[in-house]
Amino acid sequence: MTTPIVNHFSWTIGGPQGTGVDSSANLFLRSVAAAGLYAYGKREYHSTIKTGHSYTQVRVSGTPINSHVDPVHLLTTFEKTAPIEHADEVVPGGAFIYDPAVTNPDELNLHPEVLKIALPYDQILDELAKELGQPAAKVKIMKNTLAVGASLALVDFDDQYIEKALGSIFKGRKAKLVPSNMRAVKKGIEYVRAMQIDGKSVVDLFPYRLDAQPEAPAQMIMVGTTAVALGKLKAGCTFQTYYPITPASDESVYLESMQGQYGINVVQAEDEISSACMTVGGALTGARSATSTSCPGFGLMAEAIGWAAINEVPSVFVDYQRGGPSTGLPTRHEQGDLLFGAFISHGHPPRMVMAPSDMNEYFEHTFDAFNYADQYQTPVIMITDKCLGNNTMTVDPFKEDHLRINRGKLASQTELDRLAELNPELRGQFPRYDFVDDGVSPRTNLGQKNGLYWNTGDERDIYGHITEDPENRLKMLSKRQQKLETALKEIPQDKQFKLYGPADADMTILCWGSTKGPLLDAMDQLASDGITYNVLVVKMMSPFPVEGVSDILNRAKMKVGFEMNATGQLAQLTRMETGIAMDHQVKKWTGRPISETEAVQAIRDIVKEKANEVVLTYGK
Amino acid sequence: MANNSAVQDAPKKLTMRDYKTDVVSDWCPGCGDFGIVAAVQSVYADMAVPNHEIVSYSGVGCSSKSPHLMQTYGVHTLHGRSIPFSTGTALCNPDMKVVVTGGDGDGYGIGAGHFMHAGRRNVDMTYLVYNNGVYGLTKGQASPTLKLGEQPKSLPAPNPNANVDPLALAISAGYTFVARSYAYNRKHLQATIKRAIEHRGMALVDILQPCPTYNNLHTKEWYGEELEIDGSMFPRTYDMEAEGYNGMVQNPNDPDEVTAKEVAALTKIRTKEERIPLGVFWQVEMPTFMDRLEAGNPIMAKTPSYKMNIADADGKPTMDLSDTYAELLTK
After folding, report:
1. In A167, A475, B150, B228, which residue has its Cα 20 to 30 A from A374's Cα atom?
2. Which of the four pLDDT bands, split at 50, 70 and 90, describes residue A543?
3. Which domains does chain B show, CATH number per domain?
4. What are A383's strand-pairing partners?
5. pTM over 0.90
6. Chain A contacts of B77, Cβ < 8 Å?
7. ipTM value greater than 0.90
8. Pick from A529, A434, A595: nearest CA to A69
């Protein structure tokens, strides 16, 4: 047997949408995670319900990982389209599992050194049906379970973790499905273990191994939309609105499923204009309110965001970016909304725009967003993306002990009653938009006694009545804008931006959102090539941390922009805010996220070839 | 002195002045909007609702400036969006009276989508539409209620669009209270608005309101005209309930009665008459949106969203997610 490659593994499963690809991937990922391994699952799907090729690639590692890689070590298929799509991705020394009834491997663009493993699904499942005494049609749906069993047999994986994973998938009334599914897993394992090529066991011929790490700390299996949903719940968000849109709806549907348990009210509106307006209307009562959407829906929310800003309503808007413009690539990844988000809505709405860059930040910055909304009385926009939004990975359990809720400046009932007593002529009115140095006037919630004020989209006086007086306009607009400066001063720097890697590196890479993942993962490999870099992740886009970002960029030996869009939007924003331009730019806009493999190649190209611009294209 | 203080302690009889702000309206002299605002203020006084328990919502347009005249919480929103904004408030704070005002362009034009879906939800609130057939604030363009071929003086050519029938639309969308009144019939208007506010569910009052500046076809004089029908004279508008029409469903659990009343209401609304009927065309008590949402959300049913305690005295979040974390953990 060749030298085993332990706990560095990449597995792809694919097929038409709706054929069980997702459930296979789920079982596989949960099995390796249960064994204490770290996993990152990249999910690609079409904008269709059935048919349309979808696949998931699961990368497994003995240490934490934040991205996928391009090489596929094992391609597992159970129908005829995935082999055609992915055969060429399998590395020499890798393996390919297929159904001989529908696939002839000789017709594929497969590297000659790939192990070809024919798995006669129908025959094996017919056998199983007889053993279980169940109708064959009922057992055939376990094709995907069989596929996972066969796949994990090849890496000599301890099957007790598959059983655990099945237990975590089939719960409650469905728990009775565990034994039959485990039988299907075992069938796959037995078949692969018994299989020989040229008198040698295929398991011995395959060098990759997944060894359990029972001592590894427990992880959570997390999807970005879930992390954001949990951040909202933790922050005490009690009202969430949405209109169905890919890839954002998963978050709202997840929250909807938890209404009974946690008391959040989730309302599906008739469109994104309505969901944005409902959120703001809810927030006026003091209930923490939010909405989630994706690009086209985000566009529809622009006017409501401006209204919330001029009326200083604490509200949270989450945008999951996908490929644009217009419907664009509705199920694919892109970071194309930064400039739109940072400047959304006409006039001068004081916008706070956050961009979390990993699963933990999806949770914690969501929590923070509600505090900022309350503290600075303005809409907070969180720009997330499809890559982290839809991908699944193992993460450390979220830390919560340090989290505190800050509702900002609220007028207390005692103060309001005193004000009313001292000023009977006010008849219960409250100067909601009073001029104060930090720009943040104390607020009341609709329904509070002696707290009457008016909201209007027009310019207004301190009570909220319309005025077009130029002197008032001068002061009122400045008051609102002042809040951004206050926020920049008060918000801890590590929430605004973060530098990873050695301070004196050869190169500083500027990025945001999910592109951080491959850059962190590529660091070790490039360091062993003699290339060192640090990664500057900007997380607060408005107000922009001009000073902090400038300090780091001014010290950089070489500045590289690294983004998942066609124009380098963060590089543009940074240049606008700081006057500092990037020396090189890495871009990708095919809709498929950047892998660690691509990051390594792009950085090498910049260092060795002095490439000004690297355009990445890999991925199906 | 003791006598005096007793007088002070006695509940004050509220008047419409208690619901008026000091804001000077910028409506044109003779605008029908004045009467509507006064009617609403009188209804509040009559119902003795504490000012802070009312929120006056509106969209954008002449009539949408109404909240600034109301000594209540006021929310003057975006053009066409008063319904979704106010829906958010009504759902998060069901203890408030939510009264929305707006024009026909605001509600039946740019806001038509929301207008329709408000019926499907049956949120407990009141929607008063000041219907004058024109977009007054932008100099009198045709609104969705102006009829095909009509040409008020502000239009360069006859209206090429047919009109929408807001009352029929409201009933088919699911509104549970649908009425029409007239800005200059103060008594009828006040009574109808009161019934709408008291109704539990989504109530629409379409209020015919002359625009004295741009709509020279449907003026106060035109609405006030007497028509000769079969040799007798009749006022152009009439109280249909005084003439025997009854659109109230007595037993909402009787599907036959509900259907019969709904058909009767739509028939009444769509039947061509020379006179214009005023009154409540349709009223039925149905579970509100809040009722339906609370059925699946016992925590919210107990504590409305705005009252939920989300942090302890130290600011620590009260939300405990450990059950969910346990499900997400790998071991």
Report:
1. A475
2. very high
3. 14-292 (3.40.50.970)
4. A319
5. yes
6. 277, 281, 307, 455, 457
7. yes
8. A595
